[in-house]
Automatic annotation (TrEMBL):
The chain crosses the membrane at residues 12-33, 53-71, 83-105, 111-131, 143-166, 172-195, 295-317, 329-349, 356-374, 380-400, 412-430, 436-452. This is Putative polysaccharide transporter. The keyword Heme does not apply. It comes from Thermoclostridium stercorarium (strain ATCC 35414 / DSM 8532 / NCIMB 11754). The keyword Mitochondrion does not apply. GO terms for cellular component: plasma membrane. It comes from the Bacteria. It is a multi-pass membrane protein. It is found in: Cell membrane.
Length: 475
């Protein structure tokens, strides 16, 4: 039971950090839209998008390698951080060259307007990610949680100071982000005593090559996920126009809720997958986690599909309301993405990042092909269907290949039946209206409950047992 408690504890700590930051940043949106012009906010979004694309390329995703190797008990963790920092700095030098080239050729004018902020935002973002991954690798999850909370509170405070009191506009916006990340990095340095690490005294001379070999395939993985998530929008714009893409893009707002929950779990899972790795899975830890996680994703997805129109009524106003049609298919895609991510944690445990990446690349290539074919054939909804199919293929490839490393006991027939029911729910949302729709939807949801009735009963019993145990301790 100790392995389950560790996982739940890490999920709890990471939830405090992630949810707090997302809620506070969400509350700042009215402030940004009131003070910044559309050009200014668009320029900021361009800078952040560029950083998110460039960072895994220029740093060869070394932060992921730092997390994985820091979890190893027989490796000097100082060496791990030292290698990560050196490669991060080299990546920053690469960014400087890109900025100079862009300045000379004026390829992206908006980046030239804010090149200093672009440079500083990249640096603090890369260092913050490095420190965060290292802290997770040495099992300092509390430090990660507190650093996230501190960074968010400082971001809110600095935004108020620089945007409202000093009225610095987009400059104040950038300064607030840079300072909040910089002080959070300082917090990591103090708590983890990073200032004591000698960057020039690496004991294991082979560690650098091992870490680079691990992280290099993840660069393609990051780019491929980026393609999976965004290629549909470009193709919809190309074939159907900018307005159609505006409606399609807004449809992602609801699945993003699921994605937030999934990302928190997968951060905690990546640690447990390494620490508890057992190729035979004698205690069925991996199997139980996979099964429970799948059931939770399927049931939440099913409920959100049922209430998609209701949620859209409040979230998607005026011409954006039609976006609800694409939401169910994107929700199912995110379920497959979640399950593929969980299996990815196992590939990380055995350091097979090549299979991790090949599956994502296959999905990305298929996504592009299907998007072109389906969007031309059936319109915007084809992009959502293409995304669903590509995520399904990524999951299939990983579920077939993970058997090489672990005896993962899953109930594949039940799972495939549940995925089929989710697909039927999505089709029903489009085909039926009024009372008939909800009769069909709740009938299909009841079928899911029936399929997983024994598992749900066990989960409820475990939750009640833990609540009773906690209550007795409090007394």
């Amino acid at each position: 039971m100790e392995n389950y408690r560790k996982l739940i504890k890490n999920i709890g700590l990471l939830s405090i950090s992630s949810f707090g930051s997302k809620i506070l940043v969400f509350l700042l949106v009215p402030l940004y839209t009131n003070i910044l012009s559309t050009y200014e906010y668009g320029s900021y979004d361009l800078v952040i998008t560029s950083i998110n694309l460039l960072m895994p390329i220029l740093t060869i995703n070394i932060s992921s390698s730092v997390l994985r190797f820091a979890l190893e008990k027989n490796i000097n963790r100082n060496d791990v951080f030292s290698v990560g920092l050196k490669i991060t700095i080299k990546g920053f030098i690469g960014l400087l060259l890109i900025i100079i080239i862009n300045w000379i050729l004026n390829i992206i004018p908006a980046l030239n307007d804010y090149c200093i902020y672009f440079m500083l935002m990249y640096l603090v973002s890369a260092l913050y990610q490095l420190c965060s991954y290292y802290a997770r690798g040495i099992n300092e999850i509390k430090v990660v949680a507190f650093a996230g909370i501190i960074q968010t509170i400082l971001l809110v405070l600095f935004n108020i100071i620089f945007l409202i009191f000093f009225k610095l506009g987009i400059s104040g916006f950038f300064i607030a982000n840079i300072l909040s990340l910089l002080l959070a990095i300082f917090f990591y340095c103090v708590c983890l005593k990073l200032y004591r690490i000698n960057l020039f005294n690496v004991q294991n001379k082979n560690i650098r090559d091992e870490m680079k070999n691990y992280s290099r395939p993840l660069v393609l993985n990051s780019i491929s996920w980026w393609v999976n998530n965004t290629s549909g929008r470009y193709i919809v714009t190309w074939i159907c126009g900018v307005a159609a893409n505006g409606v399609y893009s807004i449809a992602y707002k609801i699945p993003t809720i699921l994605n937030t929950l999934q990302s928190i779990f997968l951060q905690a899972w990546e640690i447990s997958a390494v620490q508890e790795y057992d190729p035979n899975d004698k205690n069925n830890f991996y199997g139980n986690i996979y099964h429970t996680y799948n059931i939770c994703n399927v049931l939440v997805c099913s409920l959100v599909i049922i209430f998609t129109k209701v949620i859209a009524h409040f979230m998607f106003l005026k011409d954006f309301y039609d976006a609800w049609k694409y939401v169910p298919f994107l929700l199912i895609a995110y379920v497959f993405g979640a399950m593929a991510g969980l299996i990815g944690g196992i590939f990380s445990a055995v350091k097979d990042t090549k299979m991790y990446s090949y599956s994502t690349i296959a999905g990305a290539l298929l996504n592009i092909i299907l998007n072109i074919i389906l969007v031309k054939s059936i319109g915007v909804i084809g992009a959502a269907v293409a995304t669903l199919i590509s995520y399904f293929v990524v999951w299939c490839i990983r579920i077939l290949n993970v058997k090489k490393y672990i005896n993962l006991r899953i109930r594949i027939i039940n799972d495939l039946c549940s995925y089929l029911i989710l697909l039927l729910q999505s089709i029903a949302m489009i085909k039926f209206t009024s009372a008939r729709l909800y009769i069909v939807e709740f009938f299909l949801f009841a079928l899911l409950i029936f399929i997983y009735r024994n598992e749900i009963k066990k989960l409820v019993e475990i939750v009640i047992s833990n609540i009773n145990r906690f209550t007795r301790k409090r007394e």
